[in-house]
Amino acid sequence: MASYRVLVSDPISEKGVDALRAAPEISVDVKTGLKPDELLSIIGEYHGLVVRSQTKVTADVFAAAKNLKAIGRAGVGVDNIDRNAATDHGVVVMNTPSGNTISTAEHAFTLMLSLARNIPQAHASIVAGKWDRKSYEGVELCGKRLAILGMGRIGTEFAKRAQAFGMSVVAYDPFLTSARAQSLKVDLAASANEALTGADVVTLHIPLTAETQHILGAESIALMNPGALVVNCARGGLVDEAAAKVHLDSGHLAGIALDVFEIEPPPADFPLLNCKKCVFTPHLGASTAEAQENVGIEVAHQVKNFLITGEIVNAVNMPNLDSRTLESVGPYLDLASSLGTLLCKIAPAQSDAIRVSYLGPVSELDTELITRKVLTGFLATAHCEAQVNLVNAPAIAKAHGIRISESTVALATNCTELIEVSAIKGDEICTVAGTFFGNSARIVHIAGHYVETNPMGRFLFVENDDRPGIVGTIGTALGDASINIANMALSRNEDRSRAVTVIEVDTAPPTAMLDALRGTPGIIRVLSFEL
Fold first, then answer.
1. DSSP-derived 3-state class of residue 65
2. How does pLDDT run across 239-264, given as a tens digit for each residue?
3. How many other β-carbons are positioned within 10 Å of the β-carbon of residue 135?
4. In total, how many domains does the chain have?
5. Which residues are catalytic?
């Protein structure tokens, strides 16, 4: 008799259903098109649930799902699943980020070709009974400079195809190392604007975050060569559609192709709707027979393996932890995450390696989970193609060419216990470290300076020449901005040439204040961040 019951509530490929049924431990029911109340009435019977985008897995569903252990989403997006509720109820949520890689890359490439040769417009002209060859003269892609923002799986596949067409590829990704870029035969840009400068074609393969929203706006589009083309098959909102229209009307952009939009479907006042230099598709990046089959098979194996063996692949929420592991490493996890986040804020961009070192009692534990928590904090701080969690953080780091290692502590320290985290880029090493004073976690080392501060809160970090008056200048600036100081730590190096001030503040400092401090003689670096 089967030990586990799995409900498939949205259509997936028959091969996926067959993969589930092939396991004797699992019985499968396929019931698609369920109404919310129908799902609520039966979900309590199942240990696993397989969905696409139609089924809404709400907090009410999780409350009724007394036996549910895993949800598999056949696709990437999990907006239809309440992940917080899933975590609260101990349900692992897994998606299939790799199943549509080729499909999306090919669709984006197709849109680029369509723009370059005016394919949709020329087709419409023929259908309208016209024979207008002069109006649809195109451009060759061979020899053109292609900028790719985001070099995850899809961006990498796009680059391979572009190189086959003779395009010169420059890429920007905050986690792409120089070694990885060299192996992919692409030029590595230090910033998005550097990649965009002088580009003939731009394609986007990054997530939508507060940092990446409108990454293609009026100013960044102006950096591209006149007559540039833009393709977005990633997320709506990456392109400022109103700004794109201005550049299309002026002729600076020769065309833009969108498979995703800020509002889907686009409203009647969509600014690009009547532009002649555009190609639109209704979010078809993953819509191929092969992609649908791949994600169906992939999600089936993920749910099956988790239920039978406990293996977790492509989880998008916190994985289950057994009580013994959680009891032993739990106190270190928040500190580890803060150290990773802090390191990302102060470390050199596009670091080659992350090293996590341990001293004292913590070194005697199974530190893999702590190291993953450091890595999660580091990767999640900047925009990244995939959602970062304890399960997928090492794989994401590997895909971006970041080496991960563990070692014993290298710092000279009086602490009996220490977690030390270093980012390495060539010969440059940046280190942060934390410890416990009793039950209180503290950060005790930041980039060559010994300090003592809380591992959580809002912080202002100032590095400066060690001269009188700097601390007063900082305090005055905070006072003028009506920002209260909760805690302050000062440190200077042995030769008294450099000093740092780490201030815990109640509210985030305004940009104008930060810029003013950066312009102050003697101040070398000013950072504002939250841990």
1. coil
2. 999 999 999 999 999 999 999 999 99
3. 11
4. 4
5. 235, 264, 283
